[in-house]
């Protein structure tokens, strides 16, 4: 999950929700390169799919996250 553009006031609530539901290890955030590096560890272990849950209720932020995921995917292919 990329949280770069989520407004600061919504970030603590969103992170608390994910920690409560999934555990802190489920959080992936940072630049596309940072997220790709973390996902590569899973790919090296044989994982092939990722489930993404946007934490923002705002459509523009969710769409921006999806666009950044394309960058992550490209980095993982290299």
Features:
mainly alpha, 3 helices, 0% strand, single chain, 78 residues
Q: How does this model look, in words?
A:
The chain is mainly alpha-helical and 78 residues long. The longest helix has 19 residues. The chain has 3 helices and no strands. The N terminus is likely disordered. Helix 2 packs across helix 3.
Blueprint of the fold:
Blueprint: H1 11-22, H2 32-44, H3 59-77
Helix pairs in contact: 2-3
- Average predicted confidence as pLDDT: 78
Number of helices: 3
Q: Report the sheet with the most strands, covering strand number, pairing sense and barrel closure.
A: none
N-to-C SSE series?
Answer: HHH
Distance between the termini: 20 Å
Q: In which range does the helix fraction lie?
A: 55-70%
Tell me the Rg in angstroms.
13 Å
* Multimerization state: single chain
Overall 3D form = globular
Instruction: List unreliable stretches of 5+ residues.
Output: 1-6
Classify the beta-strand content into a percent band: under 5%
Tally of strands: 0
Structural class: mainly alpha
Quick synopsis:
The chain is mainly alpha-helical and 78 residues long. The protein contains three helices and no strands.
């Amino acid at each position: 999950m990329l949280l770069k553009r989520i407004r600061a006031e919504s970030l603590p609530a969103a992170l608390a929700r994910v920690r409560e539901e999934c555990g802190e290890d489920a959080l992936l955030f940072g630049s596309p390169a940072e997220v790709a590096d973390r996902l590569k560890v899973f790919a090296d272990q044989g994982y092939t799919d990722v489930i993404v849950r946007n934490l923002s209720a705002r459509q523009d932020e969710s769409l921006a996250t999806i666009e950044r995921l394309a960058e992550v995917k490209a980095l993982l292919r290299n």
